[in-house]
Write a structure and sequence with these properties.
2 helices, 54% strand, Repeat domain-containing protein, XAC2610_dom, signal, Integrin_alpha_N
């Protein structure tokens, strides 16, 4: 459930007007309600924003965050959607999930479009049980600045999955494990490389098995993989 309150008007430039709005979101998390204070102009919200968490059923602030550029679009009903990660598309301004597989909800907050190809970037905070608060994770945040938007999470295999590309013809999918005392460890790479210059596409698979990398490379005619080129 989302409740929206108009909390003011802020002029931007000579002709455009951004409205300072407050969204109360009650269905994005199983544990927390969220209030987002941000300026919106037409169907786009962005710039400096405040994100406030409340434990469900309570009015006392649990924790507060700030974003320099929350940056998200509003659908036709002007209610922000949270938790969406369409590939290469517009992603949500805020996401909850267990990003380090410790059984507790973590939070990712949009920090503008600072990823490759001006893609979404996020500041990721993981819940620290002993401190009873969310703490910033540099390595998880870095994944969003270095790859195509917010990473995906496979809870069954306990893997974090990222996607990257170089131009039209180089794509990489990487999987990370989260290991105690070590943090993120790259354990798998799947690469499609059509930039070899020999009319072939290399499909490369690398896997970390018992501490050693195993690699397989298969070559395919370029026209079979990219028939329209």
């Amino acid at each position: 459930m989302i409740l929206k309150l108009m909390i003011g008007i802020m002029c931007v430039g000579l002709f455009s007007i951004a409205q300072a709005e407050s969204f109360l979101i009650t269905d994005a998390s199983q544990i927390y309600d969220v209030r987002i204070d941000v300026a919106c102009e037409e169907d786009k919200c962005g710039g400096e924003a405040k994100i406030v968490l409340y434990q469900k059923g309570k009015t006392k602030v649990f924790q507060q965050f700030a974003s320099e550029d929350l940056n998200f679009y509003l659908p036709e009903d002007r209610q922000p959607t949270l938790g969406e990660t369409p590939m290469y598309g517009d992603q949500s301004g805020l996401m909850f999930g267990d990003f380090n597989f410790d059984g507790t909800e973590d939070i990712a907050i949009r920090s503008g479009n600072n990823g490759p190809y001006n893609g979404p970037s996020y500041e990721v905070y993981v819940y620290h049980k002993n401190r009873n608060k969310f703490v910033f994770s540099q390595e998880l945040s870095d994944l969003t600045y270095e790859n195509l938007g917010m990473f995906q999470v496979d809870p069954k295999r306990q893997r974090i999955i990222t996607f990257s590309k170089g131009g039209c013809c180089y794509h990489a999918k990487r999987e990370y494990a989260v290991l105690p005392q070590k943090g993120l460890v790259l354990v798998s790479e799947s690469i499609e490389d059509a930039m070899r210059g020999d009319d072939q596409v290399a499909i490369i698979q690398r896997d970390l098995i018992r501490g050693r990398w195993k690699e397989t490379v298969k070559l395919y005619p370029l026209k079979d993989i990219y028939p329209d080129n």
